[in-house]
Amino acid sequence: MSQEQPIPDEKSLAPLLLLVDNTAVIISPKENQGRDKDDDDDESIRRLLSLSRQATPELLSASPPYVNITKLDLPNCGLSELPLGFERAFPNVRILFLSQNRFRQVPAVIGSCRQLQMVAFKDNNGVLQSIHPDALQPQLRWLILTNNQLQSLPDSIGERCHQLQKCMLSGNQLRTLPDTMKHCQNLELIRLASNQLDEIPMVLLQHCPKLAWIALSDNPCLSHVQNNNNNTASACASAVPLLQFNALDWQEGQVLGRGAGGVTRKVRWQDQYVAVKEYGGAMTSDGLPETERRLACAAAALHSPALVQVLGETPPLPTQLPPDHGGVAETEDAPAAPLSLVMEYLDGFVALAGPPSLESCSRDVYHHGTASIIQMSVEQAEAMISKLLQALTALHAVGICHGDFYGHNILVESTNPANVRLTDWGAAFFYSRTDTAVAPYIELAEIRAFSILCQEVYQHFVVAPPPPPNNSSSSSEEQKTAESILLAELIHYLDEGIAKANNTAAKLAAAAEEKDAMATTLITFEQILVWWKQKQLAVMATNFAPTQDES
To answer: Are 122 and 100 in contact (CB under 8 A)?
Structure first.
């Protein structure tokens, strides 16, 4: 159902309105009360399928259950509940999207869908306030509940969801998380931005050994850091020069990318091309776009070669807008759009990887789309990793966690992948480096993400590189140069350091000891960088050492 179509009357349609394979289906109330209930249920399902663009005569002539349907997408349908027998009609549904509806509670019936692995109830018109405990089951891997009014989570999320890998909870009213979530041992990504958390969720940071991607911005527990201009990182965000909007030439305005936080365009400014990101005002799965803008400015102020250079920002958009700029004019009823960020334009850069798929869940997809053109030597891979490690060290030194350190957020120059930029600050947040009870855990999570990227680069570009372009004379076997001993040793070093840190964290949590000692017992980016530089120097010394003949 498109956004322009009216939402059906909820009372008359609620239990009988579904959408199959992106096609809205409205089932009218039953009129023949004398018919068998099972026949009525079957007829409702058939009528549902008959209105689907994907319906086939064979499917319509069959009776439930429909075992071949594995995905249902039902956005903006006015739904407030699911019909009885839903789990029997669709026994193999694996993916269920129910965003922009009117659910007040995540219903129990979905817990009876034994194949269901991915569930989304994003933005249910501000009425979704709770999750039925029985809605959460062990096979669930991916839960999306962004931008609702959830005030608490049921204990069943930790008691049952042991396979949960991704949990999107930004934009709710959560004040705390249940202690049972310590049993979510496979949790890798959590989004908790823009809630009401009074304390950092240590139940996750201490107990979840795979947690690598976190978002915590705009919570009371971090407001003292985020709004503190004495904080180095926070102060940097206010030091970006203000550029005049009309100084930008929007005649071309080529769209470079669209994301949840806004649109990025290629624009001319002072005889050069720049990238301008116009931030939207809506909540995203990572957090608020305005917070993303502040973090991007703070990161750029560190002047790390692997961080995108920010040239300035524009004031709110004026009423008279350049052609096709994509912004919103200011009127009495609609205020001006948020500030736009003016950044360096990265010509010839492509994403290192594609974002996770429904199948890969929390892992990027490599050698897909534009990323398939990347050819990387061992030396370039090592140089790229080195620059990213330096950038992460600089960020955490001033209390910035990126929160989304993925290959799809890393841009590399296609002809020289050693030239690299870390992008996308939607999940980033400020934290206090002096809080030794918390800071080491936040840094440890990002170190896990860095370790995963190192393994992916090693596997996909060093051990098993992509085939060369068609116009290349070299074969893929010739591309497989000697494995990078340096990268292999780094991965081993990270594995050992993370395992030791996980063990230390578990012991401290179990013994309820003072956490101030954590600062010296958990691995840090600074330690990793020092180790890496020492290894690089050792390799250089070996390469320049005289041979036996020369001596």
So the answer is: yes
CA separation, residue 258 to residues 255, 326, 404, 542 (Å) = 8, 11, 17, 47
186 touches 161 (CB < 8 A) = no
Cis previous bond, 65, omega within 30: yes
Q: Which of 333, 332, 368 has its CA nearest to residue 353? A: 368
Verify cis geometry, omega within 30 degrees of 0, for the bond prior to 8: no
Q: CB-based contacts of 433: which residues, under 8 Å, 6+ apart? A: 396, 397, 398, 399, 439
Residues in the chain, overall count? 551
Distance of CA 49 to the CA centre of its chain: 33
Rounded distance, CA 193 to CA 299, Å? 19
**How many other C-beta atoms lie within 10 A of the C-beta of residue 372?**
13
pLDDT number for residue 334? 35
**In the chain, what percentage of residues exceed pLDDT 90?**
52
pLDDT at 72: 83
In this structure, what is the dihedral angle of CA atoms 117, 122, 127, 132, given to the nearest 10 degrees? 10
Closest CA to 355 of 497, 189, 521: 189
Instruction: With H, G, I as helix, E, B as strand and everything else as coil, classify residue 312.
Output: strand
Report the distance separating Cα 462 and Cα 383, nearest Å: 13
Asked whether 482 and 379 are in contact (CB, 8 A), the reply is no
Taking all residues of the chain, what is their mean pLDDT, rounded to a whole number?
Answer: 81
DSSP single-letter state for residue 242 = B
- Alpha carbon distance 399, 430 (integer Å): 6
Give the 3-state secondary structure of residue 249: strand
Burial (0-12, 13-18, 19+ Cβ within 10 Å), 516: exposed
The rounded distance, in Å, linking the Cα atoms of 400 and 390 is 13
> What is the 3-state secondary structure of 341-388?
EEEECCCCEEECCECCCCCCCCCCECCCHHHHHCCCCHHHHHHHHHHH
Max alpha carbon distance in the chain (Å)?
Answer: 102
| Cβ-contact 307, 441 below 8 angstroms | no
- Checking if the pLDDT of 401 tops 50, the result is yes
Q: In whole angstroms, what is the distance from residue 421 CA to residue 495 CA?
A: 25
Least confident of 166-170, 259-263, 489-493: 259-263
Question: Are the beta carbons of 135 and 107 closer than 8 angstroms?
Answer: yes
**Strand, helix or coil at 490?**
helix
For residue 241, the tally of other CB atoms under 10 A from its CB is 9
Separation of alpha carbons 143 and 95, rounded Å: 10
Give this prediction's pTM: 0.85
